[in-house]
Amino acid sequence: MHDSDNNNKLDGCELIKSLIHWHEQGSKEQPNGEKPHVEEKVFSDEELVALIDPILQMDDTSRDGYIDYPEFIKAQQKAAEKQQQQQQQQPHEQQQQQQQPVH
């Protein structure tokens, strides 16, 4: 993440910068030299609020308007656990689909 003001906390503006950086990294050249097709988008204030507010609501457990380092680590752990659960469910769901008779 990008703690621009070095206060060991992330605010809404820093979260936006992080999302933009993440998006820009996704549009870099591929190993084969090709650049992926990425449409540039200018977000309205309302769209930015819709992106950032849920992150702050979910991860800012102290409700001070910032995500401090312990809150960030906790959020990353929750995200990793959720991803692991989803990965464990996928083979089970695929197996169930394969066992269903086709009509």
What this model shows, in words?
This protein has a two-stranded antiparallel ribbon. It is extended and about 60 Å long. The protein has three helices and two strands. The protein has 103 residues and is mainly alpha-helical. It has one domain (9-99): Recoverin, domain 1 (Orthogonal Bundle), CATH 1.10.238. The chain is 59% helix and 4% strand. One of its GO terms (molecular function) is calcium ion binding. Residues 1-75 form the EF-hand domain. Keywords: Calcium, Repeat, Signal. It holds the Pfam family EF-hand_7. InterPro entries: EF-hand-dom_pair, EF_Hand_1_Ca_BS, EF_hand_dom, MCFD2-like.
What are the low-pLDDT stretches, counting only 5+ consecutive residues below 50? none
CATH class: Mainly Alpha
Quickly count the domains: 1
CATH topology: Recoverin, domain 1
What is the number of E strands?
2
SS-based structural class?
mainly alpha
Summarize the biggest pleated sheet.
2 strands, antiparallel
Give the helices and strands, then pairings.
Elements lengths: L8 E2 L1 H15 L18 H15 L7 E2 H31 L4
List keywords for this structure.
Recoverin, domain 1; 103 residues; 3 helices; two-stranded antiparallel sheet; extended
Provide a concise account of the structure shown:
Residues 76-103 have a biased composition (Low complexity). It contains three helices and two strands; from the N terminus they run βααβα.
